């Protein structure tokens, strides 16, 4: 017991007084306005339905998975949605494994209420066979870093991962149409969930002086505040949920002011989430196109990873043609890739809908890693440069020389959003392999030049750097 | 005789490595390590007062918490925790801070084969980031042996499942890239050639295992290089950790 007391963190009286005094002059310790959110960044992982949200110093990851289960007896036509929050000990020394603490349960409940009660996720579309099989969607939220205001960030992470999650398509077959066939992603494009609106949670902190309130409290402010309120609203101005668990009494006028502020914040954040998801979807569509080589590989090895699948023609064509108008950078990548992808000199838009691309199914493309993996075939050098550059250089180290021939992209998190095109040495690596020309295979590929280099580097043990 | 790998690597080739440190703010040390698609995040909380009941209070103890991507914590996670704990115990200097607990928390971000080696590497980098005193670092690698007796390094998840057997090997990180003549030998072999941890799955012949060991050791030199370089930028006076 002593050890636990010794390890808890407490705010000192001086710090508490400083924060309160500063706030009464409208100054916050991190320099924000009282009604300003911290910097929000939403990133997505390699798989569908995984998101990483950073709100200032708060860092949360969300994963969405789906499973076919039997429905609840009183709701035979609806799928289920369940939220699991993990307050990882990584986030805060006071978090412990085992039984979830009060705040963990509260967070889970707030996010759950926002999504379920407001019918944001359409559960009826998750039904496969009424009364027998429905989709159970499970959202796992991992709190990695507690920088304050976990509720808002967790909510955003849940929404971002729900928006990018794709579930496999099911169809009924067999005799009597009672057998359910789940189509793997290689066969049929997985479907996104139907989400009607985005409920955004906005948290307010109240302090001991009258009418002192802040939005998005940091960790220190949370230790000082005497009351808090979370309002979940959507961009249409509907209030989905309000949570004010005890704490100091607050005037009605202040509550109304909070709700007005919250609706403004909600529309801002909704826009940010939608932008991030759009970018991810574009990247994803591009990736799917990339994985369609027209020529088969020389060794003819069967693709062990997930096979390529044909994007449903119309959607992709429309989506991509729209993207081309908006984003010139992507267009350049497309331009560069289309001659490679397809030995015939056809125009871009007609490329994507072609069924002849199916013949690429047996290539040995790597799954999601095609954008940066140097070993995959048919990756265009421009696109590769762009995606590698978009990794960002958050670590100070820059590996300029690569004697071992291994690729070491500097990255801290997988990033799907495009960045500036910066030539890197890894691009140099790729150009040397000569396999990124897209479809056309040459004798060079048969010889596999990069392997020779690697063997040479490997055999020389005196390869001191 | 070339073994064809799905992503076109040759048998001795590792996947692209990436390592970044100090990514979390509350944790005393943190690192993210990715090998290809497998990505693991590790966080370290420095010595906390007290040890658990079954631990020896005369030494520092290490506590490992493994968080899978989704789902409940089950037996495989507990096994990983134990292996990681024993590995880290052998590289940390436990006599410096007796009666304290250092917590290492591992979060799996994505699993595409060679998960445990990735986690061990991430944990080492996080321990360095936190400034925990250690004797030397450890680098971990996964080697599989195929039916044909061939050994391939750093398999992806699909390759792992197809292989006859695979082994996770942990070697000490060499301080020098090239061992000079007359460097400290233990029983005729340099210290760097020792194995800290070896976990095998599946069946493989003794010769195959030794073959894997050799390959693994050679590759670990490259890994050590990479680890050293990515941690080198953390010079004293370079960083100021909040809290």
Automatic annotation (TrEMBL), chain A:
Residues 36-168, 197-263 form the Exoribonuclease phosphorolytic domain. SUPFAM superfamilies: Ribonuclease PH domain 2-like, Ribosomal protein S5 domain 2-like. Its main location: cytoplasm. GO terms for biological process: exonucleolytic trimming to generate mature 3'-end of 5.8S rRNA from tricistronic rRNA transcript (SSU-rRNA, 5.8S rRNA, LSU-rRNA); nuclear mRNA surveillance; nuclear polyadenylation-dependent rRNA catabolic process; rRNA catabolic process; TRAMP-dependent tRNA surveillance pathway; U1 snRNA 3'-end processing; U4 snRNA 3'-end processing; U5 snRNA 3'-end processing. Residues 325-360, 390-465 are annotated as: Disordered. CDD domains: RNase_PH_RRP45. Residues 399-416, 434-448 have a biased composition (Basic and acidic residues). GO terms for cellular component: cytoplasmic exosome (RNase complex); nuclear exosome (RNase complex). InterPro entries: ExoRNase_PH_dom1, ExoRNase_PH_dom2, ExoRNase_PH_dom2_sf, Exosome_comp_Rrp42_subfam, PNPase/RNase_PH_dom_sf, Ribosomal_Su5_D2-typ_SF, Rrp45. It is found in: Cytoplasm; Nucleus. One of its GO terms (molecular function) is mRNA 3'-UTR AU-rich region binding. Keywords: Cytoplasm, Nucleus, RNA-binding. Belongs to the RNase PH family. This is Protein ECERIFERUM 7. It comes from Citrus sinensis.
UniProtKB/TrEMBL annotation, chain B:
CDD domains: RNase_PH_RRP46. It comes from Citrus sinensis (Sweet orange). The keyword Nucleus applies. Keywords: Exonuclease, Exosome, Hydrolase, Nuclease, Nucleus, RNA-binding, rRNA processing. GO terms for cellular component: exosome (RNase complex); nucleolus. InterPro entries: ExoRNase_PH_dom1 (IPR001247), ExoRNase_PH_dom2_sf (IPR036345), PNPase/RNase_PH_dom_sf (IPR027408), Ribosomal_Su5_D2-typ_SF (IPR020568), RNase_PH (IPR050080). Belongs to the RNase PH family. It comes from the Eukaryota. Gene3D superfamilies: GHMP Kinase, N-terminal domain. GO terms for molecular function: exonuclease activity; RNA binding. Residues 13-133 form the Exoribonuclease phosphorolytic domain. It is found in: Nucleus, Nucleolus. GO terms for biological process: rRNA processing. This is Exosome complex exonuclease RRP46 homolog. Its main location: nucleus.
């Amino acid at each position: 017991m002593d050890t636990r007391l010794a390890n808890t963190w407490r705010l000192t009286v001086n710090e508490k007084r400083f924060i309160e005094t500063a706030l009464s002059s409208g100054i916050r310790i991190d320099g924000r306005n009282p009604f300003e959110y911290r910097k929000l960044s939403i990133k997505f992982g390699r798989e569908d339905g995984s998101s990483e949200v950073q709100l200032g110093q708060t860092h949360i990851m969300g994963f969405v998975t789906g499973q076919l289960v039997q429905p609840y007896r009183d709701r035979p036509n609806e799928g289920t949605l369940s939220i699991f929050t993990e307050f990882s000990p990584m986030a805060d020394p006071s978090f412990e494994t085992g039984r979830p603490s009060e705040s963990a349960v509260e967070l889970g409940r707030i996010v759950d209420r926002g999504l379920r009660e407001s019918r944001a996720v359409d559960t009826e579309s998750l039904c496969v066979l009424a009364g027998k099989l429905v989709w159970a969607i499970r959202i796992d939220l991992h709190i990695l870093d507690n920088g304050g205001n976990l509720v808002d960030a967790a909510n955003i992470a849940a929404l971002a991962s729900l928006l990018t999650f794709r579930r496999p398509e099911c169809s009924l077959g067999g005799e009597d149409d009672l057998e359910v066939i789940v189509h793997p992603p290689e066969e049929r494009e997985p479907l996104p969930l139907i989400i009607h609106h985005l409920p955004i949670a906005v948290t307010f902190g109240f302090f001991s002086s009258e009418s002192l309130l802040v939005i998005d409290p940091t960790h220190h402010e949370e230790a000082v505040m005497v009351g808090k309120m979370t309002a979940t609203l959507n961009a249409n101005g509907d209030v989905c949920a309000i949570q004010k668990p005890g704490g100091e009494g607050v005037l009605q006028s202040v509550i109304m002011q909070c709700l007005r502020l919250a609706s403004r914040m909600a529309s801002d954040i909704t826009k940010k989430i939608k932008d991030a998801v759009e970018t991810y979807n574009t990247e994803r569509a591009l990736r799917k196109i990339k994985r369609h080589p027209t020529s088969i590989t020389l060794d003819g090895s069967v693709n062990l990873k997930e096979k390529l699948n044909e994007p449903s023609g119309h959607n992709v064509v429309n989506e991509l043609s729209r993207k081309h108008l908006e984003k010139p950078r992507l267009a350049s990548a497309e331009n560069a890739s289309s001659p490679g992808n397809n030995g015939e000199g056809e125009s871009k838009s007609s490329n994507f809908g072609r069924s002849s691309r199916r013949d690429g199914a047996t290539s040995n493309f790597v799954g999601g890693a095609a954008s940066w993996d140097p070993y995959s075939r048919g990756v265009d050098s421009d696109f590769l440069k762009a995606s590698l550059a978009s990794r960002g250089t958050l670590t100070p180290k820059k590996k300029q020389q690569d004697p071992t021939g291994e690729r070491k992209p500097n990255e801290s998190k997988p990033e799907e959003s495009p960045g500036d095109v910066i030539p890197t040495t890894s691009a140099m690596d790729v150009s040397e392999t000569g396999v990124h020309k897209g479809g056309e295979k040459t004798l060079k590929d048969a010889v596999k030049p990069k392997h020779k280099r690697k063997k040479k580097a490997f055999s020389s043990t005196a390869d001191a750097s | 005789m070339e073994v064809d790998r799905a992503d076109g690597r040759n048998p001795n080739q590792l996947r692209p490595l990436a390592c970044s440190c100090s990514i979390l703010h509350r944790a005393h040390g943190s690192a993210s390590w990715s090998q290809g698609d497998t990505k693991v995040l590790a966080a370290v909380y420095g010595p906390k007062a007290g040890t658990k009941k079954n631990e020896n209070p005369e030494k520092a103890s290490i506590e490992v918490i493994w968080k899978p991507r989704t789902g409940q914590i089950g037996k495989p996670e507990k096994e990983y925790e134990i292996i990681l704990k024993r590995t880290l115990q052998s590289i940390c200097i436990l006599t410096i801070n007796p009666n304290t607990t250092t917590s290492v928390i591992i979060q799996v971000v994505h699993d595409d084969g060679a998960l445990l080696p990735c986690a061990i590497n991430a944990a080492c980098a996080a321990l360095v980031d936190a400034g925990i005193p250690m004797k030397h670092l450890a680098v971990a690698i996964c080697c599989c042996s195929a039916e044909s007796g061939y050994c391939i390094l750093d398999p992806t998840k699909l390759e792992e499942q197809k292989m006859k057997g695979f082994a996770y090997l942990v070697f000490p990180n060499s301080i020098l890239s090239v061992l000079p003549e007359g460097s400290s030998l233990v029983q005729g072999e340099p210290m760097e050639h020792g194995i800290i941890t070896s976990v095998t799955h599946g069946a493989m012949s003794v010769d195959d295992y030794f073959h894997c060991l050799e390959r693994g050791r050679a590759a670990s030199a490259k890994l050590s290089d990479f680890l050293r370089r990515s941690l080198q930028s953390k010079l004293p006076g370079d960083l100021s950790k909040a809290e």
